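# step 3/5: fold
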Amino acid sequence: MNSLIWFRQDLRISDNPALCEAFKNSDKVAAIYIHDEETKGVRKMGSASKWWLHYALEDLSKSLKDNYGIELYIFEGKAQPILEKLVKENNIDAIYWNRLYEPYHIDRDKKIKNEIGVDCFLFNASLLNEPWEIKNGAGSYYKVFTSYYKFCLASRKPREALKAPKFRGKRLEVRGNGLNLSELKLLPTKPNWAKGFYKYWPNMDN
């Protein structure tokens, strides 16, 4: 089975449910990131967030290559047409990704899942509980945080963090024009107001 693992805000190989399941169930895997600020409703990133994204993607790319020999393919634009093109050109059978919970992300993901034409597997990688899982005795959602908090403490144990998975499959070479990270133009140029950030980023000598 040929699969895509679609990275979004989960730019890590440890504690990444979608990555673990993709590796477990696939013969070949390709890793992608889509910088989507064009889908309706998606909030554009601020300059500091873009700086962080650049180096997070750089670290993720290195981790995937060093640990699994897998390349991170980077794209820019609306997610759905990019995914549709990748599915068609690379004989993709399944896409794995971790959920985002903003309304515009939920709407986009539902549309992709319903229209993409391949199996889509979604996971929780950022919350202790899925929002729809916690209900009171009457079957309704909690409206008071204290009651919600006490219920979660008494009835639910957070899952253990996942270790970086092993991969016994092969990497999937993706057809299509991926970008170099620098082409996203996430870093400031003149003036470089982010000079002071570098000392806070691990293992950076800039």
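# step 4/5: annotate
The domain at 2-126+163-200 is CATH 3.40.50.620 (Rossmann fold).
# step 5/5: archive (pending)
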